[in-house]
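name: query_chain
kind: protein
chains: 1
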Amino acid sequence: MEEIVLNKWRHHYEDVLKWDPNNYDAWIDLIWLEEEWGDEDIIRDTFEKAISNIPDELEKWYWGRYVILWMLYAIWEESSGRIERAWDVLEKIQSIIPHNLFSFSKIWIMIAHFYVW
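structure:
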């Protein structure tokens, strides 16, 4: 029964994302759904699909949720004991953010915590 409900919600989010792949709230909901099920390969694949949708707009507001996806990805990798992968995730988002236009202090704080840790 649980698998039926999971598949129903998974298809719902996939339909939403088919029409708007930059709907980062839907990506976050789908990731949380997959985390409840617990298959690490599917969770990682979902994160990778989500972060492949870079915002079209160069305004900080559009990038905020996108950056949160990356942060959640790094936290998930770290909490699963894969510190090197978490570090790679943080390095990648640092190279993608258009720093000449804006930045995100939470990313810098996460990186600082990795250095201190």
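note: The mean pLDDT is 93.
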